[in-house]
Task: inverse folding
């Protein structure tokens, strides 16, 4: 374990929604979401007032309105969010050049040796939070620890406008008590499988050997084995280059009907677009992943001549990829979408208004 590194994770609080409430004082204190108002619109970000109604990002806007009829809906202003993000990154670089942005609103910083010669990483984090508020009027939460995993978990412990330190001497007890859902790389499907194996916390995970975890979870099992033992030596990488953005969904029950599966894919498409906007990543290749009930999987890809920018474009391409997929009698257990083949930023502004093919018959 390397206890000499000092890692800070900064995460802005409800970033898109907070920018809107800052720029529109009349929205402050009211439930607000950023997203599309159309019938197929989804929530890109929710204010903390909206979260009290159970509203979360990637939720269908119709469902959000059912949960809060007085909800304020504002369209996204990506250029405004990008401008604030650049302000925040300028602050980061006043302290260290070892800055690894994860998206517009969060980043890792290695402040082991920092430009202001501040001996305490906690002081650095608190100074950065104060400067962010002074210059932007927005709050940020910070986590500090000796590795990236713990720093990121810590930043989410006391949101909003919070700060958490996980020191080397407290880390083993902290990780032992940590719910398995908080571990890096553990999504809903993996968490469900872990619960079936009797793994609910880090302490439960510690009882499993490397061989057992690799047998159950493949390559990810090795990661879980080391993370729970606080062996996370990943460096803060200022030159991190994202090659793709995507997400997938494992169904609670295998699906057999094409239209039902396509409906799930449409939801995934909206979520991928949210992630692309958040990460300022746009690509020209869309890949569909389908895993069947027998765990066999296939992928289908299509490359277009323009950057895929919105959900309608992605859904149209997805429908054409999906039409060639045969659904076996046992059904489908997982589907996913990934955008790759990144476009230069200067090319992203151009949009193709119509797709060069007709809608397929999915009946």
Result:
């Amino acid at each position: 374990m390397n206890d000499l590194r000092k890692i800070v994770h900064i995460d802005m609080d409800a970033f898109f929604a907070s920018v809107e409430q800052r720029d529109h004082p009349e929205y402050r204190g009211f439930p607000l979401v950023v997203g599309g108002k159309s019938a197929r619109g989804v929530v890109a970000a929710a204010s903390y007032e909206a979260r009290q109604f159970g509203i979360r990002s990637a939720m269908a806007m119709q469902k959000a309105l059912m949960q809060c009829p007085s909800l304020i809906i504002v369209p996204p202003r990506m250029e405004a969010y990008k401008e604030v993000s650049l302000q925040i990154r300028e602050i980061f670089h006043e302290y260290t050049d070892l800055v690894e942005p994860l998206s517009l609103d969060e980043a890792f910083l290695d402040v082991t040796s920092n430009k202001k010669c501040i001996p305490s990483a906690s002081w650095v984090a608190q100074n950065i939070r104060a400067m962010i508020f002074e210059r932007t009027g927005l709050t940020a939460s910070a986590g500090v620890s000796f590795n990236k995993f713990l720093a990121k978990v810590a930043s989410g412990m006391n949101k909003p406008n919070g700060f958490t330190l996980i020191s080397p001497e407290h880390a083993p007890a902290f990780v032992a008590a940590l719910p398995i859902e908080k571990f890096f790389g553990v999504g809903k499907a993996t968490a469900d499988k872990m619960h079936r194996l009797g793994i609910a916390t880090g302490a439960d995970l510690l009882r499993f050997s490397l061989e057992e975890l690799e047998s159950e979870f493949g390559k990810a099992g090795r990661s879980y084995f080391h993370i729970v033992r606080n062996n996370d030596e990943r460096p803060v990488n200022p030159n991190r280059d994202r090659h793709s953005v995507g997400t997938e969904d494992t169904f609670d029950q295998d699906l057999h009907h094409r239209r039902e599966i396509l409906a799930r894919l449409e939801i995934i498409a909206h979520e991928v677009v949210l992630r692309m906007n958040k990460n300022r990543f746009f690509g020209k290749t869309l890949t569909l992943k389908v895993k069947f009930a027998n765990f066999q999987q296939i992928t289908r890809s299509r490359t277009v001549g323009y950057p895929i920018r919105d959900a309608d474009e992605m859904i149209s391409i997805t429908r054409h990829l999906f039409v060639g997929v045969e659904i076996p009698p046992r059904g489908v257990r997982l589907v996913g979408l990934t955008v790759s083949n990144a476009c230069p930023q200067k090319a992203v502004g151009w949009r193709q208004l119509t797709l060069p093919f007709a809608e397929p018959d999915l009946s």
In short: Residues 258-279 form the longest helix (22 residues). The first strand starts at residue 7 and ends at 12. The chain has four domains: 7-14+79-165, 16-77, 171-227, 244-348. The mean pLDDT is 89.
